[in-house]
Amino acid sequence: MPEKTVDPDLVAAAIGEAETVATLYELNANYIRAFAESDVVWYREHLADDFVCTLADGRRIDKAAFLKRNAEGPGVTDIDHELVDIKLMGDVALVHGTTLYTRDGAPAATSYTDVWWRSVGRWQAVAAQLTAVAKPASDRKQQ
Predict the structure, then answer these.
(1) Structure-derived torsion over alpha carbons of residues 68, 62, 38, 100, reported in degrees to the nearest 10
(2) Average confidence (pLDDT) per 10 residues, the chain, 143 residues
């Protein structure tokens, strides 16, 4: 039986992709943390200058309006995220997930898609799309 060999370039590419995806998972977790903590400094550093966010009600806001809203506080408690899925396409990545929270004493959730772009070796969010979830999971742990 012939000896099987592994192409070192393919191995290096797979390792590089795995590291990139891990970085994007970390950026996503920090994006949610920054929301929970009203961390405008983190957002200012990680959102592209031409960042645009489409809110759950359909309004579109730019980076300045997003930062202003974030500085006012999240308006919700018990913030968590789940169902995160990352699609890497070269220097662009789509991050899909669901943010869970409590609003006015009731569980609620928002699905999101964030678009990240890598330029000069640095990832920045260029867009976010928020969609209210009609009926969040009733078995969500309340704190």
Answers:
(1) 130
(2) 75 79 97 97 98 97 98 94 95 97 94 97 97 72 42
